[in-house]
Write a structure and sequence with these properties.
9% helix; 304 residues; Immunoglobulin-like; four-stranded antiparallel β-sheet
Length: 304
């Protein structure tokens, strides 16, 4: 084995060991908080389908809440209801965590009597878990724990747990004391109410970084579609007068988010349709960044 390859292997082993030790540093009580079960806890998610070739969007809002608890075979389960299209047509299933094994168990159909294992919160980084009938990562029979890492969400210190479903490679992200964050860019949480704590405009899910800005850039807003608010991120290479404005499909200006001098750096601003006097209808809008000679425009969708 060459010296360089040996160093790479050693670093990889060190990374896996440190990650595994980190996950083990969380107590069992803390690991259970990735699935925060309690009556009246609720979550709202946005899902979007985008056909790039035909520029076609289909989007909706999924609502999930815990309505009550119940007993099956002398064991307590939580009754969880979800509405995948946001029309009030709720589907019901039961869930609980076996505190001894860490298995997250779900009953999707009481008449069948089948109890599915959909996760295991005690698994360490690198572990593979056998799962069955998990609607959040369909067509997968196993999941592997990618990482468990500290982060900040909306100024709230928490821990992110990232898993991948196999063989489809679908990802899920969880946060302690919040629950499931989403499964990718097309399905993501925007608000939640968990154990009496409200989390609104959930956007910041990654560790804080401060990279050197090398070019002007306007990122796609998130979430998109959105209601009532969305986050817009942009970068400025050098000091410049920056304006960020919102327009409707007719080109009418509906809001000015930024109009001031900015130093080099990365910035973010929230466009909240509940603020100010605008009463915007559902539809397509455009947001435009101007910084010196740089101009960039992107499309967003407001979904009431």
């Amino acid at each position: 084995m060459s010296f360089v390859r040996g160093i790479k292997v050693m670093l990889l082993c060190t990374f896996v060991l440190v990650s595994s030790l980190y996950s083990q540093n969380l107590s069992k009580k803390e690991l259970l908080e990735f699935y925060p079960y309690n009556i009246d806890n609720s979550w709202s998610y946005v899902w979007v389908y985008h056909d790039v070739l035909n520029d076609y969007y289909e989007a909706g809002r999924e609502k999930i809440f815990i309505s009550k608890d119940t007993v099956v075979d002398n064991i307590k389960y939580w009754v969880i209801q979800y509405d995948i299209h946001g029309y009030g047509n709720y589907t019901k299933y039961l869930e609980r965590i076996d505190s001894v094994t860490g298995n997250v168990l779900r009953i999707s159909d009481l008449s069948s009597g089948n109890i599915d294992c959909i996760d295991n919160v005690y698994a360490n980084v690198g572990d593979t878990i056998s799962i069955s009938n998990n609607r959040d990562i369909p067509y997968c029979t196993n999941m592997v724990i990618n990482s468990i890492r500290d982060t900040v969400i909306n100024n709230f210190q928490t821990t992110i747990r990232e898993v991948t479903g196999l063989p489809q490679l679908n990802k899920l992200f969880f946060a302690r004391k919040i629950g499931l964050l989403g499964s990718g860019s097309n399905y993501w949480i925007d608000s939640a109410k968990v154990n009496g704590m409200a989390y609104n405009h959930i956007t910041d899910i990654h560790e804080k970084t401060n990279p050197i800005v090398t070019h002007f850039n306007l990122q796609q807003n998130y979430p998109n579609p959105f209601n009532p608010s969305t986050l817009i991120k942009y970068s400025v290479v050098n000091s410049a007068n920056v304006s960020l404005k919102i327009y409707d499909v007719l080109g009418n200006e509906v809001a000015t988010l930024i109009n001031e001098e900015k130093l080099s750096g990365s910035y973010e601003v929230v466009f909240d349709t509940k603020e100010g006097s605008q009463n915007l209808a559902s539809g397509v809008y455009f947001y435009q960044l101007r910084a010196g000679d740089f101009v960039q425009t992107k499309k967003m969708i407001l979904l009431r």
